[in-house]
Each structure stands twice: as structure tokens, then as C-alpha cells.
Amino acid sequence: MSVEFLIEHSPALAIALPLVAAFAAPLFGKLGSFLRNLWVLLMLAFTELVVLLMGQDVLANGARVYALGASVPSLTSPFGFPIRIVLVADAMSALFAVTAVSIALLAFIYSWKYMSDKGGVDKFYTLLLLLTAAMAGLCLTGDFFTLFVFLEVSSIASAGLVAYNRSGKSLEAAFKYTVVSAVGALFLLFGVGILYGKYHLLNMAAIAAEMAISSSFLDVAALSMLASALLLKSGAFPVHMWKPDAYQQAPVNVTIMLVTTALLSLYVLFRICFTIFVPVMGSTLGWLAVVLGAASIFVGVTMALPQKNLRRLIGYAAVAEVGYILMGVGTSMVSISRMDGFAVQALSGGVFHMINDVLDMSLIFLVAGGILYVTKKQDITELSGLGHRSGFLTVMFAIALLAISGMPPMNGFASKLLIYESVYFLNPMLAIIGIAGSMMMLALFVKIFASVFLGAPYRGIVAPLPLSMAFVMCVLAFFIIVFGLFPNVALDLIVTPAVQALLGKAAYIGGVI
Amino acid sequence: MIGRLFITQSGMWNPLSFVVAAVIILVIVYIIRSTGTKKYKKGTEQTVAFFSGGKAPEENVHPENLYWGFFEAMKRYYKWLMKFHTGIVNDYVYSFVLLVVVVAAVLLLGGAV
Amino acid sequence: MISIHFVAVALLISLGIYAVVFRRNLIKIVMGISVIGSGVNLFLVSLGYREGGIAPIFTNAPQTAMVLPVPQALTLTSIVIGLAVTALMLSFTIMLYGHWKSLDTRKRRLLE
Fold first, then answer.
1. How many Cα atoms are found within 13 Å in the side-chain-facing hemisphere of A54?
2. Mean pLDDT, chain C, as a whole number?
3. Measured between CA atoms, how close is C109 to chain B, in angstroms?
4. Considering A292, A329, B56, C1, which has the largest number of Cβ atoms within 10 A of its Cβ?
5. b vs e for B40-67, b when ≥16 Cβ sit within 10 Å of the residue's Cβ?
């Protein structure tokens, strides 16, 4: 298997490898837990290698299109027949595929010790890998129906993972999550059906090419269903209520996957909007995203303040973080239609903040999981003075706290600066809401920091933190600090190509058809 | 690369300056700390936490009521917010259906057609 | 051109939404989601209906219009996915009933 082969088939392999690993994991589980863990680790590492190769190739040679079932993978529409399952890897989707697979790999390394004393780990890993495959699929899909399939696969796998503890509360969270995402996915399918009925096409690029300068009532109906369903999956303001439930009850290594899935559905939303709908209705769509983003920030932060459970609190903070992304990208959409020159900066801020949000949220959830692991407690009123007992967790929590609340020199500041600055030119009031949200977020996490880590030394039992868990936190903290100290490097290297790919509608359509 | 300016559209920012500032602050803290009193003894009254002149309780004071004033001022908002967050799954779906309607209405009224 | 299928689709979807939003019983919620699913499937199938079209099998086909099989393929996939989701939700319902001895959505909720 040569490198060229890997690169040529990388979009398919990124989905196929985790799928194979998923269903083989229980078989290896029969041979012993170490062998199974080794198998999952090797397969995830291999997938990571494949997506990294894909990313490097895409950055060097431009977008790669992969038609499933074609004799030549790049042959997407033989005889002008554009209904085929098409995977598209451009700089944007490759960036998110790399992010998703990396987070899955880190979540697995974290689970090695975290899950070691629990039952049913074989099936846990099967679902984890299934979710990884679905996430890779969400990133790479080029047509609407595959999008629906991967969305449903990710909902089913993550619902099973949320219910992993099988306590009444986790089952309830999982049930709510399934109901909400099933209704959302059906609405999405309905929207896809409307688009199919009008254009007789399923491929995103082909529909974008077909859609005229103006849009009809049917397009708007389809868009409102697609956008609402994807907002639901990402947990923006009026449909955010499943998020704290699921984030609180899932094991933390699952929660970081859920965070990533939420951001991937935002990515899909942006992909659909920028490819198909922004040229037609960019201004309205952008204002809608900005207003929903501002509402998400405000409601998320104010709901987080009175929470007592650490992970539920972070869940509400995650709602606010989604608000920042919506704000940045919405500004970009308005800016494109106004042509006031802030489109690229706002979108860079939004995309950069998506990456930063994955890193920050993952780190803080993993620290929360570490606290749970070493003390077996998660109510912040029961904890205090942990800083005297576990310096490592204290430092990691401080880094994550500064990063989430957008304090320099962490990565959160770099992306939020771009968002604030562009949204200020849209409406100064919105920038004020954003900055006030960040300040409240800082107040929120300082409260937790004081409550959990400061005070008289903790008296209970503190188990030692396993090395694998500490390693994962160190990796995330490393990227947080590097992206914070060298935002230029991150922007030039990964964000700007991704933003250009998202804005370069013509190149995307031309590449696929 | 260190110290390269991070240039945004209408401003710039040097991440390194914050690191330098942090180092300077740490040095100042260290200087102040090293001029501290030599009379410090463990286990005496000096180590007891200062609790507004009163006797500190045995357990820690929890900062969960730290933002009491904020909640008191925003009472009506929070009453509305809690009414909105019922935690019943029916309401989750209801808000989703409302979102679909609102998005469609905004797009139609906003001149998308 | 509104034909009877689309009326049925609208009816089924609104019935399903009514059940999911206003019924408090977990099983009825699951049923409601299934009904929405049926409505969407009916919508997809009726999009693919062509009067006088034949099945797209190329061997010995007469020279008449053939139906594009995409909507049928979509419907089939979506039925299978719907089955998986329904089974998952019902198993959650069984386990929730085992824990709380109640199927009312208002009884147990995660707050605080």
C-alpha cells in the first residue's frame, strides 16, 4: 500500500477504517482487553495518518473529489448524471476531518485508563468508532442524502454513548437527545426532499449551480428546515436544551466527541449556506445567524451562572461558545452581501474559533473528568481546596479557563478578537454583548476555580491521575498555548486556506461537477 | 516568529507582550513576597483565614453565592429563563418547531424570495 | 398541482408533531416520531412517482419512460434508519420505566 494509494482513496478510507475497526472491536475484545485497545489505537492512528495525508495533499494540490462506485474515483458525473455518492475533501473539510479524528484519538487514549474498571467496554469502543466514522463522513460528504445518513449514524451512536452509565439520569438525557435529533433529522430529510423535488439533484455543488440568482418559496422552506435541524444538532439558542443534559450525563471522553459533533454540524450548515444560499439571501441569513448567536451567548452564560454541577455548567458555556461562532460567520455572510470587506476576517474568526472551541472545551471537560476520576465527586459544592492536592489539574484548569473566556495570550482571545472587531462594524451593540459574555464566562469559571481548587486543603481521598489522561490534557494545552502565542501561524497555515475554500464557491462547484 | 504582530483589519496585537507582562508581574510578586515578615509561624493564629473579623467556620466558605447580587438584580429575567428551561422533552421539540417557523418567516419577510 | 399525496404528507407530519409536542407519554412520543417519519417517507416516494413509468431494469426494457430510482433508494434507507431510531428509543423507554416506574415526561427531569 503506497502513499499515493492512501492519498487517492483517503476520503473513503477516513470513513471506512473506523467502521471496520468498530465492528471488529468486540471480536478483539474476546481475545483480551489489551489486544482490543491496541487494535482500536492502531486503527485510529492509521485513520489519523490518512486524514493528515489528505490534509497535506489538499493544501498542496487543491480539492479532491471522490465518487463512490466509479471506475475512476474522480469521475463524478458520467453521462451528465449527477446523482452519485460523492465525497469532497477541500481545505475546509480536511481541516475538520483532521480535527474530528484527532479528538477521537485523544478521547480513546483518555479512555484507556478512564474506562478500564467499567463494564461493556467492547461495545463502548464500537460506538466510539462508529461516531468517529460518522464525524469523518459529515466532514467529507458532498451530497445531501449522505449527510442525512451520517447525521443519523452520529445521533444513534452518540445516544448510545450518552446512555453508557445506564443510570436513570443518563438514560433520560439519552432519550431526550434521541427524540430531539430524530425529529431534527426528519425535518432535514424533508428539506432535502423539497430540494430534490425541485431540482432532481442531491449533490450540493450541482444544486448550487442550478439555483438561479433569485430563490423561490420552496428553496426558503428547504433552507429553513435544513438550517434549523443543523442548529439543533449544534445546540444554538432556542434549541440548546438537550446540550447540558447530554454533556452532563455522558462520560467525559464521550462529551468531547459530542462537542466536536456539534461543531461539525455547524460546519455542514456553513458549507450549505456558503455554497448554495449566501449569494441569494446572504444578508437575511447572516443577520439571523448573528442574532441567534448573540442570544446563544447571553442565554448560555446566564444559565451557566447558577448551575451547581460542573459538567452541566460547562454545557451551558458550550452553548455560548456556539454563539460566538454563529456571530462571526453570520457577520461574514452579511459582509459578503454588503461587500464592506470584513467577510474574510469575520469568517477566519469564526472558523478559527471553531478549532479553538474544540480544544478549549475538550480540555475543560477532560479536567472535569480528571476531577471526577481522582475524587469521585462532581458537585462543586462538595469540592474545595483541590489545588493543594493536585497541582497538575489546577494548572490545566487555569489554562482552559483563560482560553474559554478569551483571555490573552490563550487561543480563545485570538479568534474572539477577530470576531469582536468584525461584528463591531456590523453593530457595536453586538460586540458589547460578545465582550460582556466573555467577561461573565470569566466570572463563571473563576467562581469554579475558587470553589474547587482554592481554600483549605481537600480532606477526602485523591487517587493518582493516570499518565495517559495527563498526556491527553498536555497535548490539548500545548495546542491552546501555541495557537494563542502564534495566531499568525495557525491562521496562515490552516485557517486561511479553509476560509478561501469556503468562500471559493465557483472553485468548489467546478471541482465537483 | 516570536513577537510577530498579529494584524487584524483595524488594529494589531502582539501576543508576546502579554508573556512579557506576565513575567514582569511574576517578578514583582516575587520581590514583594520576599520582603515578607520573618515572624511567620505555622499553627499559630497567623494562619487562620480572615473572615470579616469573625471566627472562620470549620469548613470552607463556598463561593456558590458569590454572585448573589447579580441574581437578585436579574430576578425577573431568571424567573422567565427558568420557566423557559423546563427540562421536559416535549418543550424541546416545541422550541425546535418554533425555530423552523421563525427561520422560515424571517427568511420570507427578509426578502429572500 | 397539489395532489392527494401531499395533503396526506402534511396531515401525517402535523399529526406526528402534535403527538411529540403535546402527548406526555414516552411511548406516544416515539409513535409520533414514527408518524413524522412515515410522512417524510411518503413525501419522498410521491416525489418519485411518474405516471406510466416502468421499473428501471435495463435488460429487455421496452422503449418507454423509466423511473429514476433515487427517491425509492432514499426512502428505503430512511425506513431502515427510522427502524433503528425507533428501536433505540423504545429500548430507552423500557429502561427508563425500569428506573422510574413512570412514562410521564413531566415526572422526571434533569434540572440543577
1. 36
2. 85
3. 5
4. A329
5. eeeeeeeeeeeeeeeeeeeebbbbbeeb
Q: Which chain C residues are Cβ-neighbours of B88 within 8 angstroms?
A: 105-106, 109
Question: How much is the average pLDDT of A370-377?
Answer: 87
B86 domain residue, yes or no = yes
Model confidence at B3, pLDDT cuts 50, 70, 90, reads very low
Q: How far is C16 from chain B (nearest CA, A)?
A: 11
Q: Is B52 left (phi over 0), alpha (psi -120 to 50) or beta?
A: left
> A321 is written with which cell numbers?
461558545
What pLDDT digit, counting tens, does each position of A419-437 carry?
A: 998 888 888 999 999 999 9
Mutation for testing the A interface, residue in B42, B74, B89 having most A CBs under 10 Å: B89
Residues 19-58 of C with CB under 8 A from B: 20-24, 29
Measured CA to CA, the distance from residue A138 to residue A87 in angstroms comes to: 10
Do C17 and B88 lie within an 8 Å CB cutoff? Answer: no
Residue numbers in B near A414 (CB within 8 A): 6, 15
Estimate the crossing angle of helix A411-426 against helix A343-375, to 10 degrees: 140
- Which class would CATH give C4-50+67-100? mainly alpha
The pLDDT value given to residue B46? 66
In whole angstroms, what is the distance from residue A56 CA to residue B95 CA? 42
What is the overall mean pLDDT for chain A?
Answer: 88
Higher pLDDT pick, A132 / B112: A132
Collapse the DSSP code of A64 into the 3-class scheme (helix H, G, I; strand E, B; otherwise coil) and give the result. Answer: strand
Q: Give the whole-angstrom CA distance, residue A32 versus residue A295.
A: 50
Position B1 scores a pLDDT of 43
Interchain pair A455, B100: CB under 8 A: no
Contact residues, B window 47-76, toward C, CB-based 8 Å cutoff: none
pLDDT digits (tens, 9 = 90+) for C13-40: 999 999 999 988 999 999 999 999 999 9
Position B57 confidence tier, pLDDT thresholds 50, 70, 90: low
Domain boundaries of chain C, sorted by first residue: 4-50+67-100
The answer to whether the beta carbons of residues A160 and A128 sit under 8 Å apart is: no
Contact A160 C88 (CB under 8 A): yes
SS3 A203: strand
Return all residues near A405 (Cβ < 8 A) that are at least 6 apart: A412, A438, A439, A441, A442, A444, A445
Q: Average of pLDDT values for A368-380? A: 85
> What's phi and psi for C78, nearest 5 deg?
-70, -30
Answer with the residue of higher pLDDT: B63 or A208: A208
Please compute the mean of the pLDDT values over residues A241-269 and round it to a whole number.
92
| Cell digits of residue A13 | 478510507
Q: Which amino acid type is present at position C83?
A: L
pLDDT given for residue B112 in this prediction: 60
Among left, alpha and beta (phi > 0; psi -120 to 50; other), residue A80 is left
Distance CA B42, CA B47 (A): 7
Please, which residues bridge with residue B12 across strands? B7
Cβ separation of B15 and A414 shorter than 8 Å?
yes
Q: List B residues 2-41 in contact with A (Cβ-Cβ < 8 A).
A: 2, 4, 6, 8-11, 13, 15-16, 18-19, 22
Looking at the DSSP bridge assignments, the partners of residue A143 are A203
H/E segment holding residue A237: none
* pLDDT above 60: residue B59: no
Q: Is the Cβ pair A220, B18 closer than 8 Å?
A: no
A-contacting residues in B 42-101 (Cβ below 8 Å): 49, 59-64, 66-67, 70-71, 74, 77-78, 81, 85, 87, 89, 91-93, 95-96, 98-100
What predicted TM-score, i.e. pTM, was given to this entire model? 0.92
